[in-house]
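Now for today's protein:

——
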Amino acid sequence: MSVRGEFGYWVFEGDWQPAQRPSWNYRAQDGGGMVLDMFCHWNYVFEHLFGRVDAVMAKAVTHIPERWDEQGRRYDATADDAAYGLFEIGDTIVSMNSSWATRVERKELVELHVDGTHGSAVAGLFGCRIQPRERTPKPVWNPDLPTDLDFRAQWDEVPDNQEFSNGFRAQWETYLADVHHGRPHPWDFMSAVRGLELVDAGLTSSAEGRRVVLETRTS
């Protein structure tokens, strides 16, 4: 039915603590920006988990307007450091927050909370917790009393029954094997194009304050 995603962490401004990301990330003229960085990733993640994005509404913002570079020099942050997106995938609604100006209160730096009629899952890069329909609690809203339910304890951890190699290595191995055997690679040039189309749609949506429909989602 719906997906809620959170990605990001606090990147220090660079004055009293060195920033843990390069300064060009925060200069639009050098190719920086959260939308350009992350919407390409969200496109293939969404495509292979839920389906192709049909439309997007996004708001890109620069929460921290000044930062300090690797040499300790102050500069204006001209690129967006956070992006808040609402993606339509058929009947599924994905709400995805991406920010370099947020403090983490979750198990991983990126998590997707997926809600379905028969259960829900919260997945990151290294772990997944599930709550099936049969184990879903029945809370009652009472603003006058604190809840006595430990909601996080009511989720089950999916066991790691095998070890997986580095994800980027696995991607390269798949690509090289397809090239070696002369077979089509499932993530082709148009997959990359769709990622940049989503970037463009997100930036357009943010600049014009409107929902943007992606027209070329079938090729």
Q: What stands out?
A: Helices lie at 34-49, 167-181, 189-208. The CA atoms of residues 3 and 83 lie 16 Å apart. The mean pLDDT is 94. DSSP finds three helices and eleven strands in the chain.
